[in-house]
Write a structure and sequence with these properties.
Length: about 280
């Protein structure tokens, strides 16, 4: 568990979405805790270790070893800028966090035109989560077919937004009040706003709906006095292209892997068999 003071400290130093305790606790169901300057989340027999330091100069491997010795989880999920070679990954994956620096940022003329055009058919409001949002999520998952952990993230986000007032729901509605697109944006951290998910209607598409919401997200972040937007991971070529179109760039390296205690034992036996 973390105290209210610790959560405030974490949010004042956060720079990736996984540094938002309420967000990760909601997604994973785990309890957040600090150790050696790193944030982790633990459940009954598992641990998520966020290998992006919040303070101090303790090496990742040293901090990870200390946490594992204390917690003794069966299953471990690790994210970090670089996974140490000593970690027994079942499968390692890589990506980048895309960020957008809002200081001196100006929207390109071509994008301003797309936004003005979208405003002829749409208006943007903040609102509550509804079944319509879940429907757009399912449309997205059906078309994009992302990996399992991304599917789980998208399906849990509406529930998170309904419970936390620092998660803002930006809705693009047409003239008949139908939901054309929505963004979820978390403004909990001190220095940045986190773009969590965005979906647009496949059954009622409106050109420029996502661009309109992106411009509103920038306005929201500036109103909240944020220095930048964290746009999340690249995920897919189409999502990367959209983020880059708006000026987002890959700035923070991301690697992930997981392993199981039984897997480690199996690897030890395998070495004996080989030699």
């Amino acid at each position: 568990m973390i105290s209210e003071a610790e959560e405030g400290l974490i949010l004042s130093r956060a720079y990736i979405p996984e540094h938002i305790p309420s967000l990760m606790s909601s997604i994973s169901g785990g309890e957040p805790f600090l150790g050696s300057g790193y944030l982790s989340y633990s459940g009954e027999d598992w641990l998520i270790f966020v290998g992006y330091p919040l303070e101090g100069d303790v090496e990742l491997q040293e901090a990870l070893d200390a946490v594992l010795e204390k917690a003794s989880p069966r299953t471990v999920f690790l994210i970090a800028p670089h996974i140490p070679s000593s970690v027994p990954c079942l499968e390692k994956k890589g990506d980048w966090y895309y960020t957008l620096d809002l200081r001196d940022y100006r929207i390109k003329k071509s994008l301003r035109y797309r936004v003005r055009r979208a405003l002829r058919a749409l208006r943007v409001e903040t609102g509550e989560i509804s079944d319509e949002h879940s429907r757009l999520v399912e449309e997205f998952l059906e078309e994009e077919k992302p990996e399992a952990h991304v599917r789980e993230l998208f399906r849990r986000m509406p529930e998170y937004a309904s419970r936390h007032d620092k998660c803002v729901v930006l809705n693009a509605l047409d003239h008949e009040d139908r939901l054309a697109a929505f963004f979820l944006v978390d403004v909990s951290p001190r220095d940045f706003a986190a773009y969590l998910i965005g979906c647009y209607s496949r059954s009622n598409p409106v050109q420029g709906a996502s661009d309109l919401l992106f411009s509103e997200m920038i306005a929201l972040a500036r109103k909240e006095e944020k220095k930048r937007l964290n746009l999340g991971l690249g995920v897919s070529p189409g999502i990367k292209k959209f983020k880059e179109k708006w000026g987002g760039s890959p700035t923070i390296r991301y690697e992930s892997c997981s392993w199981d205690a039984d897997y480690e034992k199996a690897m030890e036996l395998l070495k004996l068999w080989k030699y």
